[in-house]
Specification:
mainly alpha, elongated
Length: about 110
């Protein structure tokens, strides 16, 4: 499940990065169409891309390397992965657990 969830979250984050790049290009090319100043359009485009890149870096550099490790580091990485995946739980491709009660962060 963890490998499937990592692949799923990476795919969503890569989609968001591509959307941010595309939207930024459109808005920067035609800021008047959207009622914004060119400088504001460029700043927002840079922010959107940077935010998407940061989510990918967080996942790839601080979560994935610790998944499956023993102790608190591994448990924390598993919990962080589930938090990063949480906004996508209703996505049609979300890899749902068969027994969610056995997963970190699934207890109410």
């Amino acid at each position: 499940m963890t490998a499937a969830l990592v692949a799923f979250v990476q795919a969503r984050f890569n989609e968001e990065l591509e959307k941010a790049r595309f939207a930024g290009d459109v808005v920067v090319a035609q800021p008047e169409r959207f009622g914004v100043e060119p400088e504001d359009a460029a700043r927002h485009a840079r922010f959107s891309v940077a935010a998407a890149e940061a989510r990918l870096a967080l996942l790839d550099d601080t979560v994935v390397p610790y998944l499956g490790t023993a102790g608190p580091g591994g448990l924390n990485a598993e919990f962080q992965l589930r938090l990063l995946a949480a906004p996508y739980v209703e996505h049609r491709d979300y890899p749902h657990d068969k027994e969610p009660a056995d997963q970190p962060g699934s207890h109410t």
